[in-house]
Amino acid sequence: MKRIAWLTDIHLDFLLTQQVTGFLTSVAALRPDAVLISGDIAEAHSICEYLQRIDEAIGTTIYFVLGNHDYYYGSIAEVRQRVARFCAERPRLHFLTYADVARLTPGIGLVGHDGWADGRLGDYPGSLVVMNDFKLIAELTGRTKKDRWEVLKGLGDEAAAHFRRVLPLAFESCQEVVLLTHVPPWREACWYDGRISDEQWLPHFTCQAVGEAILEIMAARPDKRLTVLCGHTHGQGETQPLDNLLVVTGGAEYGHPAIGRVLEFD
Ligand SMILES: [Fe+2]
Ligand SMILES: [Fe+2]
């Protein structure tokens, strides 16, 4: 039996040092075989420092993707490269956005990518929501709303292209796969405050490109199973878009990181 702990939106930079240590100690106390983190760990300038603390405190294999907050005060391209280089020297840390297929057990595969809210669901042109992303992430600053939409779509498409490549690859040798991503890929998975987000928030809380890719891949493989683990909205919920596809959106509260779920696999 393998025990896998899943964490999302832990935002460790909101905590005092001893609170970070306390939380990571509680994760380590579960003695998990692996830990999955679906993004929003810290910010651009502190992400590697917190990854190191996670690695040292938990001492087991860590698979993660990054969330929008992990790029705050930096650039997506620079942070991704820096994090990939950082992980290359730490054998327990795995940045799935830059990986192909990992294994949770010999028969259960793991794939992941940050994903990105691509503005395609809900009403992007009419949305009055201004995400901090637009002020704090280099690729998104200094643009008109329309121009920014193209960048958001491009980021969503990049994530979808990753899954179109690695997910079929994973199913070549696995009956069951877990997919880790920061942004919910469907409206039905976009829980916030106990209900589905409205047209104003959906553009900033969902990645339609990834959702379409996953649906296409799973509809063609009714004998395979996929579990999607995501976060970003901080609202908890579960949905099953297909018989062979379960999506879990993890709840989170700033300043109170929690263990989202402990998954057990034979
Ligand atoms: Fe978050
Ligand atoms: Fe987020």
Describe the structure.
By secondary structure, the chain is an alpha/beta fold. It has helices at 17-28, 47-58, 76-88, 133-136, 145-173, 202-205, 208-219; strands at residues 2-7, 34-38, 61-65, 93-95, 102-105, 108-113, 176-181, 191-192, 195-196, 225-230, 237-242, 245-249, 261-265. α1 packs across α2. Residues 40, 67-69, 182, 232 line the site of one fe (ii) ion.
Percentage of residues assigned to helices: 25-40%
| Strands, count | 13
> What compounds are bound to the protein?
fe (ii) ion
Please count the helical segments: 7
Helix-strand makeup class = alpha/beta
Radius of gyration: 17 Å
Poorly predicted parts: none
CATH superfamily: Metallo-dependent phosphatases
Name the shape in a single word. Answer: globular
CATH architecture: 4-Layer Sandwich
CATH class equals Alpha Beta
Strand/helix succession: EHEHEHEEEHHEEEHHEEEE
The largest β sheet comes out as: 6 strands, mixed
As laid out across the biggest beta sheet, the strand order is: 5-6-7-10-12-11
What do the pLDDT scores average to? Answer: 97
Question: What is the domain tally?
Answer: 1
End-to-end CA span: 4 Å
CATH topology-level name: Purple Acid Phosphatase, chain A, domain 2
List its salient traits.
five-stranded mixed β-sheet; Purple Acid Phosphatase, chain A, domain 2; 266 residues; binds fe (ii) ion; alpha/beta; six-stranded mixed β-sheet
Provide a short characterization of the protein structure:
With 266 residues, the protein is α/β, with parallel strands linked by helices. Helix content is 32%, strand content 23%. It is built from seven helices and 13 strands.
